[in-house]
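Example (one chain per record):
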Amino acid sequence: MLVDSHCHLDFPELSARINQVLDLMQDNGVGCAVCIAVNLEDLPRVLALAETWPAILATVGVHPEATHVREPTVDELVDLARHPRVIAIGETGLDYYWHKDAPEWQRERFRTHIRAARVAGKPLVIHTREAATDTLRVMQEEGASDAGGIMHCFTESWQVAEAALDQGFYISMSGIATFKNAGTVHDVAQRVPLDRLLIETDSPYLAPVPYRGKTNQPGYVKHVAEEVARLRGLSYEHLVDATTTNFFRLFPEARLKVAQ
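Predicted structure:
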């Protein structure tokens, strides 16, 4: 079965037609989708989806771009991560694209998430954009390797990927891998060790070819798998088996939760 390791099913583009989204997942062999939290205010919506649908799992965290939201504490994140459908801490990380002038608050928020993940014993879901050097540095300083996790929607260079792999992280490819001009992503998709590779949609964003420009959804992760398999010279079945095995290795509790 396929796993979409990162999506936002609580966003209105998808939540308003969740039954259709789940039907397409089933039709395309997607047995599990991880609904990623981006703030604490909307976390109840994320948890409600995961509580209602066995194929949906959840995370808890505050996105690095989120402003005018409640800042989490380590204790709060640890407590929320005890929810039986929560498998990870995040989405967290650093994003300097919109916040080049004042990134220190992002770094402190990131440190809080790493510390919580270490205490909770949950992997991290890390976002980095135009901040690779600081992301890797904070990860190293805070001992993120003790928690492990995913570098999601990876768009950085192979050198950054290698540094994240050295800290024990998995690299996740999104629909960007299907874009013709995404040479850096193609290079990384070919070079990441197969046992450290994951796939995702980041839906409702970044729909893969042939749906580029449209609303993305977890069922489309099939197209990411097809293209990554092509780039690596593997059969589709081999790529699916590897990435799904990797997901359940990183999140061993998830297999039982999806089966419930």
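Caption: Residues 104-120 form the longest helix (17 residues).
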